[in-house]
Amino acid sequence: MRKWIIIISLVWISFLSGCRRNEIENRAFPLAMGIGVRTEKDYEMYVAYPDLLDKDAKENALSKDIFRSAAMTDLLSGVRIFSQESSKNVDMNHLKVLILDRDMLDGGEHADRLISFLRGKRNAAWNTYIMATDKELPELFKKEEALNTCLGIYLENLMEGWTNLRSGGLITAGDLMGQYYNQRGTLLIPVVTVEKEGPTVHSFAEVETLKWKSQKDLEEILGKYHTLKPEQVE
Fold first, then answer.
1. How many whole angstroms separate alpha carbon 190 and alpha carbon 201?
2. pLDDT for residue 21 is more than 60
């Protein structure tokens, strides 16, 4: 259902509401974003957004991504940099998945900057799913990646396939904000890796006060949710 909502918002608004071709060319709707640490003070930001001008876009707007990356010292400048370098107005309202490199979850300065970024980008949905990875952002956001769908949709479908985690078990940007300000609780964030068949998840990062503490196997986490009473997960 959510997939069709995105299709309606991206395609019908863009193609059927009177937008001229040049107006479509000037808009970008990232569905997936990655943030990683380059040096102590520098970051790398990645985005993947549907190619609305692809020849197949009118039939399936979510079939193909455009990938961009940029280096920056200030995360808040990231969206502006993408807008300037690609001549597109970047709209964060449809962001589905935010993938964080392990170094971002340091419980210190990088985590502080991450929260400042999320707080400053209120136009991005705070129900955006959070995933983590360990030095694999460049592999995730590769033009050669052939998923037959947009990366953000692929990852969203991957997570929502865990039916026993769908109600409250998946971590969102709002959950990160809550842990940061409350300074308590443990978050279990899916760790995505890139394999020959495509991105997949075999483990979860155990995160406390926005610090990556340990990893737990996927089966162990899913098993915990299976022990809950049905009314707790539906």
1. 6
2. no
